Amino acid sequence: MDIIQTTDEKELLRRLQEGNEFAFKALYEIYAPRLTMKLLQLLRSEELAEDILQDLFIKIWEVRHSINPELSFGALVFKMAANLSKNVYRRSVYDQLMRKQINADGSHNPIEESLNQSEAKELLYAALNKLTPRQREVYTMHKIDGLSYQEISSRLNISASAINHHIQEANKQLRNILRSNYIYLFAVLVPVFFEK
Question: Which domains are present in the chain?
Answer without folding.
Answer: 7-108 (1.10.1740.10), 109-196 (1.10.10.10)
